[in-house]
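Extended Data, panel c. Modelled sequence:
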Amino acid sequence: MTVSSPTILALDFDGVICDGLIEYFEVAWRTYCEIWSPANDTPPDDLALRFYRLRPVIETGWEMPILIKALMNGISDEKILHEWVTITPQILLDDKLQAKEIGAKLDNLRDEWIATDLDGWLSLHRFYPGVVEKIKLTVADGVKLYIVTTKEGRFVQQLLQKEGVTLPASAIFGKEVKRPKYEILRELKQSELDKSVSLWFVEDRLKTLQLVQQQTDLEDVKLILADWGYNTQAERESAQQNSRIHLLSLSQFAKDFSAWG
C-alpha cells in the first residue's frame, strides 16, 4: 500500500458517519422538560433548527438541555456561539444544578426510550450521503477499519448493521471503553507488528484532534477534520492554519484516498 492510503482507518461516529441531531434534540428537549417543567411541552417551531446550528458548542451530553434552556431564556445564537463557556456555568449556578445530575437525567431518559422503543430511537439517526458506501469499499480493500466514538458501541453496531455494515465488536471502541481517543489510537498503532503502519483518524471535533497532536508518539498519525460534522466555521478555519490537520469535505471522503489531500 502506498502512503496515499491508510493501513488503518479510524473514524469517529457521530458527526462523521452518522448524523444524530434529531435524536440529540429530542432527548435534550425531554430532559429540559423534566428539569424546568415548562407550561408547554411542545418546543417552539424554530427551536430544533437553532439547536442543530449551535450543536458544535457542546462538548459533553449534559450540556444539551442547557443549550435549550439558554435558547428558551432568549440568549442569542451569536452570544451562544462566542460565549458558551461562560453561559453554561451561569445557568447551572442560577438554577442550583450540577452537571452530573443533568447528565444522569439525560442518560436515564435515553435508556428508558431505548428500552421501550429501540426501533423508534434508531430511526432518528441519519447516515451522511456516501459514507456507508465508502466504509464498505474500505473494508473490501483490506484497510483495517475502526470506529472510535463516545457513543455506546452496541448502538453503533446496530446502526451500522441496519445499513448492511457488519463490523466485529473488537473494531468498535465506544463510550464503555472510558479512555481518551488518543490512547485508543496509540493502542491501534502498537497492535500492528508492521511498524510502517499508516494510521489515519477522521474526527469532527477540532479539540479531539488537537489532543492527539499533543502526543509526541502519535506524530505520524494523519489527522483529518470532517467539515460536515459538528464544528464551526472558526474551527474549520483554525484547522486550515494547522499544518498537521487536514480539512476534508464529504464529497472528498467518498472518493479514493488519494483525493483526501
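The two ends are 16 Å apart (CA to CA). This feature is highlighted in the accompanying rendering.
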